Amino acid sequence: MPANRAAENALGTIGTVCWTIQLLPQIWYSYRMKSTEGLSEWLMLTWGIAGAFLGTYSVVQGLNIPLILQPQLFGVLSFVSWAQCQYYAHKRSKVTVVAMFVAAVAIFGGFEAGMIFAIFPSFRAGKTAPVRFFGIFSTVLISGALLPQFYEIYRYKEVVGISLLFMSVDLLGGIFNDLSLAFKADFDIVAGVTYSMVILLDGIVILLALTLNPLARRRR
Known about the structure:
The chain is 82% helix and 0% strand. It is mainly α and 220 residues long.
């Protein structure tokens, strides 16, 4: 497919919007229910950490600005949802939860900034192994983070505590991000695999919800 900078940025922007708001339905759902039962805190914590690795990769690799913004927003909102798990599930105080959130954002934000400055000179010198490690490791984290959530689904025999709107918007974000990369002069395989894994795993969760939740309602 021929490179098209306008299409790349337009699709990347749509993907950014999706990944900016994708966790908002989940955050609102947890707030409205005053519960995070069935939502894996490890999913949200690992996604928050993955944001720092994917952010480092995106900046150093020189992806378009929307795709650079995505992991930053994704990471922060993941930490917000993780903080909700600390408040609702573990009954920690608001002060403690806010402190944990600020500490997580500061630690991993500082880590990302430090890694960008550390590996950018070697990348400019033609050594791509360090930056590719960050891209590949972020893929492993984003994909592996859903394993604890699949365990929660197995434990409850239904999808509990997860907003399907969140999963749907997340899936759409992955699709638009993949399409954005398709219009880039050089298709970024690592970023493409990351976005494709999100599409696949989100799709599995949605399919499980459509299959298991009606069965669970009949049992009750």
